[in-house]
Specification:
75% helix; elongated
């Protein structure tokens, strides 16, 4: 397996995992952004869980490529999704 691929995957999983933890622990900068965007608090645990699952999927994808592809697609949709203006 290509070393760069492994390193980038681990860094991406760490970044998304950190983002999930920030949602779970309600970091001030996350709370402010979610509140500004009007995201209901009842959604916050689900958003954190989606990020955590994506991070785990990236790591599992190192051994089961199909899971990694699905995790990548899910995270791409998560981070590019937006609500209507």
């Amino acid at each position: 397996m290509n070393t760069a691929y492994v390193i980038v995957t681990i860094l991406a999983a760490a970044w998304v995992g950190y983002s999930a933890a920030a949602v779970f622990f309600r970091a001030g900068w996350v709370v402010e952004a979610l509140t500004d965007y009007g995201v209901p608090q009842s959604w916050w645990p689900w958003l954190g869980a989606a990020k955590a699952a994506g991070a785990a999927g990236l790591l599992v994808g190192l051994f089961v490529p199909a899971i990694g592809v699905l995790a990548t697609i899910g995270l791409f949709l998560y981070f590019t999704g937006r609500s209507s203006p």
